Amino acid sequence: MVVGFICEGQTEEKILKSPNFQFFLKSLGIIYQGTINTKGNGRLLPKFLDIYNKRLKDAWKIFIITDSDKNTIAEVYERIKPNKNLHILIIPVKKVESWFLSNDDVMRDLTGVIYSEYRTQKDNQNLPENIEELGNPYHQLKDIFKNNTELINTSKLGIATEITKQFNIQNSNCDSAHYFIEKLQEVSKLKPTSKKKRKKTLKE
């Protein structure tokens, strides 16, 4: 099964192109078609989807990864209007950085601090237990890296670059990451249809 990806930012692109994610796709028997970074959700709209679909013309399924920010899941679907036969929408509840922060293995290895411990610190006791309820998990991620590592570049891209060197999405303990994995596993079991049917799908 050939699969393509559309995302809205550099962090998501780093995850999708990371060695461990690529290895995970291969382990499922998925052929990676490529990733399109729209560089902002302003270009993740229906009028642009046809362009992206054509660029990923060999993909039988296309995953669209976008933050919900302050919108409901229904509002995100309404904004993008994905093709139900071709697209699979993956929506981290607030921000994709929740996938990093909920990954105890990589956080312990790189910083020595995991989120459940971070929450017990004096200034953090009002933080929610569920990482996907954080308004912007990058703030907590940045705080942990600044205070527990020698990483100089603690921008979103800087932290993503460091984490994705060893990041395994399978170890991220949040619902949206689990959903992404489940959908990839489901897609890996599908049988590709004919090219004629693929073209028809694009028009629906």
Number of strands: 4
The separation of the N and C termini measures 21 Å
CATH class of the largest domain: Alpha Beta
Number of domains: 2
Second CATH tier, the architecture of the largest domain: 3-Layer(aba) Sandwich
Q: Helix content range of the residues, please?
A: 40-55%
State the secondary-structure class. alpha/beta
Task: Walk me through the structure.
By secondary structure, the chain is an alpha/beta fold. The chain folds into 2 domains: 2-95 and 172-195, Rossmann fold (3-Layer(aba) Sandwich), CATH 3.40.50; 97-169, no CATH class. The chain is 47% helix and 11% strand. The chain has helices at residues 10-17, 19-27, 46-55, 73-80, 97-101, 104-111, 115-118, 137-148, 156-163, 175-188, 195-203; strands at residues 2-7, 31-37, 61-65, 87-90. It has a 4-stranded parallel beta sheet, with helices on both faces. α4 (73-80) links the parallel β3 and β4 (87-90). α1 (10-17) packs parallel to α9 (156-163). It is globular. The two termini are 21 Å apart. 33% of the residues are buried. The model has no long low-confidence stretch (mean pLDDT 91).
Task: Please describe the topology of this protein.
Elements: E1 2-7, H1 10-17, H2 19-27, E2 31-37, H3 46-55, E3 61-65, H4 73-80, E4 87-90, H5 97-101, H6 104-111, H7 115-118, H8 137-148, H9 156-163, H10 175-188, H11 195-203
Parallel strand pairs: 1-2, 1-3, 3-4
Structure in a nutshell:
Helix content is 47%, strand content 11%. The chain has helices spanning 10-17, 19-27, 46-55, 73-80, 97-101, 104-111, 115-118, 137-148, 156-163, 175-188, 195-203; strands spanning 2-7, 31-37, 61-65, 87-90.
